[in-house]
Structure formats: structure tokens, C-alpha cells
Write a sequence for this structure.
């Protein structure tokens, strides 16, 4: 059973999250282990599994980006494993990235002066903007195109989604690297990179 | 289903509660004297094991055999607690991944000490309810990791309790609040106890309590406030009296108790005076609330980072929080309340007793599990990310923190060498990128793989975090469909055999412990009566005729002899006899007191004041 089927939803990206939450609570009431304590072991195990599946489905579908990622994986028939390898730079950012990587290497080697810091911080702000744009495109027009498109258009939309996800993942890596170079990452608490 | 009680196994105090079938409301079980809090203290005396208030009285007399704050040691390795051991007067030793408390003639593990507290609560509940109690919901700090949860479950088993659910303390508190006033929205539960701190953010809607995010620190609480004050007192004593008491275990206990008491008084008063009589000198110092706030400011600040992180993880701004609830005794400290209100930008309240609310919530969860409540549901999360160590010591996260539980993750494993039949994996919990910076949970060995060329076997491992927040692992070879056997070596914790042995030991000890406790109680009662009688003879003996005085002295001597023996019934009998012998003297003393007081006080007042003494 895939995540959409758990909620009885079609494979579409436009999801009413208020309705999704209501349904999540309703299904939780049916499957949560709390309500199966007195049941025979086999039924308890079934409830536990159903409850775990429900929680995973809700976690994925309530987040619009995770939802697209999941759909792409589902359509491609890939196993739900983490993406392999480092994400590649999108072509239109290649030149710019080259400069950033150079600045990062410099920072690593010799430390940063005030001007260098300012440049990296400004660069990071710009990339954050680009990151937000990419996300907005993904959950907005691209998701809408998927939902509205016919069978012929879908492979193209899917490919566009895949590209946008890759760009977004790449940008996040660079933003995290910049944050690290600026010495701003919180000690002892690494934010998880979502693939 | 039989009755399930709710237990708050706290660092400082523990409680047991149940849901009253008639009212549908949870109630805390009092002991015979009407006290609801059981101090989480266990004293191993030569006469037997004491728990609670009786153990508390041993703190200064036998500091090395009186164990308090054992929760801070639950599920931990020696290197985890090494830096705070100097604060404990009892001796803690490393022992195969966990720690043991050395009592001289024997050593006990933290789960065994906790089991003694749990058993006392169980007996309290059984005496009150008049029926056997075998099942319990036990609360733990939300930020407890797998080892600490497992240790708590082990403690339950050793105490003869089936721990049907481990529940997070802040979430339990939210259930208790939910039962009283079902206001919907986002609530923040700030829980600062004796040894641990949790912050949980929940969405309450239509009877569902969904935890959105949780964070905390399992080594931060009121104990640390006390320590900060003690360190300051040590310096002050050295300056003014030229004595360093840091290595004197008895003096340190005096200081700790005095610091704790002063801290508590300063929650309502602006200033207070400490007077501690030591052998060589009496220490006297006035301390203000501002002084203490200066000492603990950094600690209080340490709770605010986790609050902000929980907000970030839940994707919420402080303004999105509709209600802030304070739980745990340490939230009585005015500085704590002030800072929490600043972070969330709204008043924080504790309408239900900050000490009792967690136990009440545990009872509610117990009632849900027993089928007594069907319209409330708690959806909790796992506080820490779960991952496996991969090449180069990097952690690959399988289940991120704040994932709703139960939850599962699948991972494929294979072999790297031809004919390999065993695959190792290392499971860790934590937020760091390197395995060595995370908490090691266990090393697993997948066995029974058929010899095949490298990379051919496909072993699917399922990691499941159950509703207790505890990890279960299962594995299957997909080509053959054969379940691979898994050998688990927990990094911290007791083996199945250890727990079995402790369960057996506890039965043996339980018998002896009950006897010993009853004897100690009888002796204590005898002591109290004897002290009163001696004082009465000294002060007002002349009010009774000589033969009566002689009879009282006789009864006193007989009781004294019985008290030095171990015959509990004889002690009881002679205590009663002594009481009877002094009935007349007590009456004439009362009359005399009333006559003295006539005109100045009303008789009722005198009687009332006598009743207190």
C-alpha cells in the first residue's frame, strides 16, 4: 500500500492538508496500538504495522516538497532509499558555483577576512532566495501541471520535478557549506538534510 | 482488563495515581499519613532497605549508603556520568557498559534501586485500593533515549510490575490538563524537574493530542540549581571559617539539603537565612533571591535553546503557541517562569499541581490502555534521530527525530566478501553526523546468511520504534525468505539474564525487606513515644504520684529493652503499655496547662496547638 492509498487519495499533488489531518486523526483512532491492548498478539502486530505505515504516510504527504519527492520515486518505481551520490549543480548555476567553491576553499585554507565573510553571507542570501524560488515552482506550477496533465505530458512534468528537486538538494548542500564556512552552524546539533 | 496504575518515577519524588471509576478523574494515591509524594530515596541500612521519608532521614547519617537522584544514572555508562559523580556521596563504579552503586557489602544497579521505589509505590497502591496491582504506565522524560527507557522498563520488571507503556512526562501532563479543560490549539509544556528538562509542543484537537516536536536535556534540573548554590556556600564557608567541606560527605549532605530548602523558600520570599550547625562552627548566612538567580541564570538559560529548537522543528513561531503549561517542581522558581514567559511571549501557568500532574496524566494514559477512555488519543514522537553507522563512521539517519511513533524504517544490507555469513551493524541515536558523537544503542549481528558471492544476499532489516519509544529490530534474507537471526549486544543496559536474576533476587530481598521495614517502623514509633514520655517526666513529673511515676519508669525501661531486640510484636505491645501507663499523667498535664492559660488563651486554641506538637 503506498502513501496515497493509505489515505484513499488519488496520486495527485494537490492535497487539502486540513482534510488530510482530519483523516489522519480518524485513521489513528482506528489503528493506534493504544486501542488494541487487549487484542490477541497477531491483531496487535497488525495494528502496530498499520499505525507505523499511517504515520509514515502522513509525515510524507503533509509536506508539499516531500510529497513531490515521494511521487517522483513512486512513478520511477525506485525503492524508497536515500538518493545516492552528491547532487550535481544545475547547468545555469555552474559558473557561479565555481566561484563559490573557490571562495569556500579559500575560507577553509586561510580563514576569512571581513570582506570575504560579507561576500559569502551575501551569496548565501541569494542562494536562499533561489532555493525558495525552486521550492515554490515545485509545489506550485509543477505540482499543478502534474495534477492537470494527461498521460502524454506526465513524463515531461515528472522530469521537470526531478530536475527541480535535484537543484533544490544541490542548493541546500551549498547553503549548508556556506553556513559552516561562516562558522554559524550550531555546535552539537546538526540539522538533517532531507533528501 | 485488570487495573493499570500510572506512576511518575521522578528524580526527586515519585507518585502513583489511578483513575477513579466513579468520577472518571485521576487521583494520586496517598500513603497512610496522607502524603502523596514519595521521596525517590533508598537507604540501604544494616537493618534493611528504607524508602522515601524514612530513607531521607538517613541522608546525613549514612550518606554513602543512601541513594538519591538515581534517575540521573538510569541507562547510562560510566563515561556519561563521570563528571557529576563528585556530587554524589555514594560510590558509583563502572560495570560492563552501565554503572553500579557500591554499598560496601553489595553493589546495586540503578534499575534495581528504581525497582525498590516502584515496589513501594505498588504496595502503597495495593494498600489503598485493596487489590493486587500488577500493571503500570510509567513516565520518563521525553528526551530519554532508548537505553534510558529500557532501563526504566527493566526497573518495572524487577519490581514485579508489567510496564504496559512508557509515556513521556510532558505529554502525560498534557493529558491531565486535557481532561480538565479541553481547550483546542497548540500548547507548549515546559517541564523542569529535579534532574531533567523537557519541552514538548502539542496540537490538541478533537481529543487527539499530537506531539509536534520535543526537545530537552536529561541532565538539567533542580539538582543542578542546588549544586550551584552548594558550590557558592562552600566558597563562602572557606572564606569566612577557613574550612573546606567539599570532601566531607555528611557536611555536603547538610549543605545540599540546606541549599534546596533555601531555594524553595526563595520562590516565595525575597531573602532567607541559612543556619547550619557543623561540629566546629555554626554557619550563618543571609541569601537573597537575586543572589540565587545570579547563580542559576546560566542553567535556566540552558533550557531556552531547546525551546527554540522545538519551535523550529515544529515549524512554529512563539506567537503560534496558544497556551504555555509549566510542569515539575523547578518551575516554581520565579526566574524560570519569567524567562519562559519571555521566550513564548505569553503568561505561563500551572493550574494543576506541578508535582502531581505527570502522575495524574500517567493514570489517564493507563485508563486509555485499559479501555476506560476511548475519546482521547495521544500521538507521541521519538525525541532523537535513529541511524546506523556507515563507511567512515558517518551516520545514515533512518528515522529522524520528532517522527510520530510507532514508526518503522527498512534498510537493505548485503555482504562485502564472498561466502560471508555474518553482517554487523551499529545502531546509534543522536543528532550528530559522526557515529562516535552519537549515543551507541547496540551492535547487531545478522547471522544465518547462506554463503553466496559478495553483494548477492539481500537482507532487509526493519527498525521499528514502538509506542514506548523503544527500538525493535527484525531481519529477513529476501532471496530465501529466511528470517535472519539477530544477536543484539546493547551498548548500555542489562541483559535478559541480568534482569531475570534481579527479579529473583528482588523476591528474596522483598521478604526480608518487608520484615526489616516493619521492625524499623516499630522502633521509630517506640523512639517517638519514649522521647515524649521522658520529656513529660522531666517537665511535669511532679504532677503524678510517686507510685505512678515509678510505673511509668518501669514501662519505659521495658520498652527500651524490647526496642534493642528484634521482636517487632513485643515492641508494639510495650509501646502500647507505656502509652497506657502515661494516660493519667497526660490528663493532669493537660489540666494544668489549661489552668495556666485561662484568661489569656481559649482552651480550643491550646488543644489545637498541643495537637501539632
Amino acid at each position: 500500500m503506498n502513501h496515497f492509498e493509505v489515505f484513499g487519495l488519488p496520486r495527485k499533488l494537490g492535497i487539502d492538508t486540513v482534510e488530510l489531518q482530519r483523516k489522519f486523526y480518524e485513521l489513528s483512532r482506528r489503528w493506534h496500538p493504544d486501542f488494541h491492548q487487549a487484542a490477541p498478539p497477531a491483531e496487535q502486530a497488525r495494528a502496530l504495522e498499520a499505525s507505523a505505515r499511517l504515520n509514515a504516510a502522513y509525515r510524507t504527504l503533509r509536506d508539499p516538497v516531500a510529497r513531490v519527492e515521494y511521487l517522483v520515486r513512486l512513478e520511477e518505481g525506485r525503492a524508497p532509499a536515500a538518493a545516492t551520490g552528491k547532487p550535481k549543480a544545475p547547468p545555469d548555476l555552474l559558473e557561479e558555483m565555481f566561484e563559490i567553491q573557490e571562495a569556500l576553499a579559500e575560507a577553509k585554507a586561510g580563514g576569512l577576512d571581513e570582506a570575504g565573510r560579507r561576500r559569502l553571507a551575501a551569496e548565501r542570501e541569494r542562494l536562499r532566495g533561489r532555493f525558495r524560488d525552486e521550492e515554490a515552482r515545485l509545489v506550485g506550477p509543477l505540482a499543478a501541471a502534474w495534477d492537470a496533465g494527461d498521460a502524454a505530458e506526465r513524463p515531461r512534468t515528472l522530469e521537470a520535478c526531478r530536475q527541480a528537486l535535484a537543484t533544490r538538494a544541490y542548493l541546500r548542500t551549498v547553503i549548508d557549506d556556506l553556513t559552516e564556512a561562516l562558522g554559524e552552524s550550531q555546535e552539537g546539533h546538526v540539522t538533517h538534510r532531507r533528501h | 482488563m485488570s487495573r493499570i496504575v500510572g506512576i511518575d518515577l521522578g528524580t526527586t519524588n515519585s507518585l502513583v495515581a489511578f483513575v477513579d471509576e466513579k468520577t472518571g478523574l485521576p487521583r494520586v494515591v496517598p500513603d497512610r499519613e496522607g502524603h502523596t509524594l514519595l521521596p525517590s530515596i533508598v537507604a540501604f541500612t544494616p537493618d534493611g532497605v528504607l524508602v522515601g521519608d524514612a530513607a531521607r532521614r538517613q541522608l546525613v547519617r549514612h550518606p554513602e549508603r543512601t541513594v538519591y537522584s538515581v534517575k540521573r544514572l538510569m541507562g547510562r555508562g560510566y563515561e556519561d556520568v563521570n563528571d557529576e559523580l563528585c556530587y554524589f556521596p555514594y560510590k558509583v563504579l563502572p560495570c560492563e557498559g552501565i554503572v553500579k552503586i557500591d554499598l560496601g557489602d553489595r553493589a546495586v544497579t540503578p534499575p534495581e534501586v528504581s525497582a525498590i521505589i516502584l515496589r513501594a509505590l505498588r504496595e502503597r497502591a495495593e494498600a489503598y485500593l485493596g487489590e493486587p496491582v500488577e500493571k503500570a504506565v510509567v513516565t520518563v522524560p521525553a528526551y530519554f533515549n532508548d537505553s534510558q527507557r529500557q532501563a526504566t522498563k527493566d526497573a518495572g520488571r524487577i519490581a514485579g510490575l508489567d510496564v504496559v507503556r512508557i509515556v513521556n512526562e510532558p505529554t502525560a501532563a498534557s493529558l491531565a490538563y486535557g481532561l480538565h479543560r479541553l481547550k483546542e490549539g497548540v500548547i507548549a509544556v515546559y517541564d523542569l524537574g529535579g534532574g531533567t528538562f523537557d519541552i514538548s509542543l502539542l496540537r490538541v484537537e478533537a481529543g487527539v493530542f499530537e506531539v509536534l516536536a520535543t526537545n530537552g536535556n536529561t541532565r538539567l534540573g533542580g539538582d543542578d540549581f542546588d549544586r550551584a548554590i552548594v558550590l557558592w556556600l562552600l566558597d563562602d564557608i572557606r572564606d569566612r571559617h577557613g574550612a573546606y567541606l567539599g570532601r566531607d560527605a555528611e557536611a555536603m549532605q547538610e549543605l545540599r539539603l540546606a541549599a534546596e530548602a533555601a531555594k524553595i523558600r526563595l520562590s516565595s520570599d525575597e531573602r532567607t537565612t541559612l543556619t547550619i550547625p557543623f561540629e566546629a562552627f555554626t554557619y550563618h548566612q543571609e541569601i537573597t533571591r537575586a543572589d540565587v538567580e545570579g547563580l542559576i541564570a546560566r542553567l535556566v538559560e540552558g533550557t531556552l535553546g531547546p525551546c527554540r529548537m522545538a519551535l523550529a522543528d515544529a515549524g512554529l513561531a512563539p506567537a503560534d503557541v496558544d497556551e504555555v503549561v509549566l510542569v515539575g517542581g523547578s518551575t516554581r522558581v520565579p526566574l524560570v517562569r519569567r524567562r519562559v514567559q519571555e521566550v513564548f511571549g505569553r503568561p505561563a501557568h500551572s493550574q494543576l499541581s506541578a508535582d502531581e500532574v505527570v502522575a495524574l496524566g500517567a493514570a489517564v494514559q493507563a485508563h486509555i490502555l485499559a479501555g476506560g477512555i476511548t475519546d482521547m488519543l495521544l500521538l507521541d514522537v521519538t525525541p532523537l534521530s535513529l541511524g546506523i553507522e556507515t563507511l567512515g563512521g558517518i551516520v545514515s539517519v533512518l528515522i529522524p527525530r520528532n517522527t510520530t511513533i510507532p514508526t518503522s524504517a527498512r534498510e537493505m544490507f548485503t555482504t562485502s566478501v564472498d561466502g560471508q555469513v555474518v553482517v554487523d551493524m551499529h545502531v546509534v541515536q543522536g543528532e550528530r553526523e559522526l557515529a562516535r558523537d552519537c549515543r551507541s544503542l547496540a551492535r547487531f549481528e545478522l547471522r544465518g546468511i547462506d554463503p553466496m558471492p559478495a553483494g548477492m544476499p539481500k537482507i532487509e532489516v526493519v527498525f521499528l520504534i514502538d509506542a514506548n519509544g523503544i527500538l525493535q529490530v527484525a531481519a529477513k534474507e529476501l532471496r530465501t525468505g529466511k528470517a535472519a537471526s539477530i544477536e543484539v549486544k546493547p551498548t548500555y543496559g542489562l541483559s535478559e539474564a541480568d534482569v531475570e536474576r534481579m527479579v529473583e533476587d528482588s523476591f528474596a530481598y522483598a521478604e526480608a525487606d518487608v520484615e526489616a521495614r516493619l521492625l524499623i517502623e516499630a522502633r521509630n514509633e517506640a523512639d517517638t513515644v519514649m522521647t515524649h514520655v521522658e520529656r513529660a517526666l522531666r517537665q511535669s513529673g511532679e504532677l503524678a504520684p510517686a507510685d505512678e511515676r515509678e510505673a511509668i519508669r518501669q514501662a519505659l525501661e521495658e520498652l527500651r529493652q524490647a526496642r534493642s531486640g528484634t521482636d517487632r510484636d513485643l515492641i508494639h505491645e510495650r509501646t502500647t503499655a507505656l502509652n497506657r501507663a502515661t494516660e493519667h499523667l497526660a490528663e493532669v498535664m493537660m489540666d494544668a496547662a489549661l489552668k495556666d492559660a485561662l484568661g489569656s488563651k481559649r482552651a480550643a486554641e491550646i488543644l489545637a496547638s498541643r495537637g501539632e506538637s
User: Anything to note?
Assistant: Chain B touches chain A through 34 residues (CB under 8 Å). Chain B has four domains: 4-220+302-379, 222-300, 384-493, 498-612. DSSP finds 16 helices and 31 strands in chain B.
